[in-house]
């Protein structure tokens, strides 16, 4: 079994999302936590966008896993109200996820121009921009066969989680 690794998000936070707690960047926004998971369309788009980059880089596509998606949705909600990768770390990937990427508290209005698919695309583009050797990029291009995308929104603040499995 592949060793599980959670990737620290500090470089991505600094480069892509502004300060945590800053309503203008990717920051906190509505921290109350009474929110909801994103639409099924955005979940599916997340997998399609991931596969677009994987295909461009000669990697096989990942398949949407509803089990990983449920796990990632729970993680997005828990991490929205806590810290990045809390759920993944506390559950050791739940026995199904072996790597995770996350965009915590991104602004739907600022970074997504009001469109959830735009926000998902920007999040994934940030992972790709790290390039080889960047933890998020390496997860996205890794030897995984399945993916679940989790989305949790409260107000205009959104946390997006990608959990990878075999």
List the helices and strands and how they pair.
Layout: E1 5-6, H1 10-17, E2 36-37, H2 40-56, E3 63-64, H3 66-80, H4 86-91, E4 99-107, H5 116-129, H6 135-140, E5 146-154, E6 157-165
Parallel strand pairs: 1-4, 3-5
Antiparallel strand pairs: 2-5, 4-6, 5-6
Helix pairs in contact: 2-5
Tell me what the structure shows.
40% of the residues lie in helices and 20% in strands. A hairpin with a 2-residue loop joins strand 5 and strand 6 (157-165). Helix 2 packs parallel to helix 5. Mean pLDDT is 83; it is low at 1-33. With 166 residues, the protein is α/β, with parallel strands linked by helices. The chain has helices at 10-17, 40-56, 66-80, 86-91, 116-129, 135-140, and strands at 5-6, 36-37, 63-64, 99-107, 146-154, 157-165. Strands 1, 2, 3, 4, 5 and 6 form a 6-stranded mixed β-sheet that branches.
In short:
It is built from six helices and six strands, in the order E-H-E-H-E-H-H-E-H-H-E-E. The radius of gyration is 14 Å and the shape is globular. The N terminus is likely disordered.
Q: Can you tag this structure with a few keywords?
A:
single chain; alpha/beta; six-stranded mixed β-sheet
Determine the structural class based on helices, strands and strand pairing. Answer: alpha/beta
Tell me the total number of β-strands.
6
The Rg value, from CA coordinates, equals 14 Å
The N- to C-terminal Cα distance equals: 10 Å
Number of helices: 6
> How would a crystallographer describe the biggest sheet?
6 strands, mixed
The unreliable regions are 1-33
């Amino acid at each position: 079994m592949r060793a599980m690794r959670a990737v620290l998000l500090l470089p991505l936070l600094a480069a892509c999302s502004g300060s945590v707690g800053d309503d203008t960047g990717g920051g906190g926004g509505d921290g109350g936590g009474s929110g909801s998971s994103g639409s099924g369309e955005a979940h599916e788009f997340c997998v399609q966008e991931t596969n677009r980059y994987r295909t461009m880089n000669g990697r096989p596509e990942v398949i949407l896993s509803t089990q990983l998606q449920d796990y990632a949705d729970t993680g997005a909600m828990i991490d929205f109200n806590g810290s990045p990768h809390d759920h993944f770390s506390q559950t050791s990937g739940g026995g199904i996820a072996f790597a995770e990427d996350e965009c915590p508290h991104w602004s739907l209005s600022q970074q997504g121009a009001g469109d959830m698919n735009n926000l998902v695309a920007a999040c994934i583009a940030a992972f790709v921009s790290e390039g080889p050797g960047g933890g998020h990029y390496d997860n996205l291009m890794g030897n995984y066969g399945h993916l679940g995308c989790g989305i949790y929104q409260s107000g205009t603040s959104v946390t997006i989680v990608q959990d990878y499995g075999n």
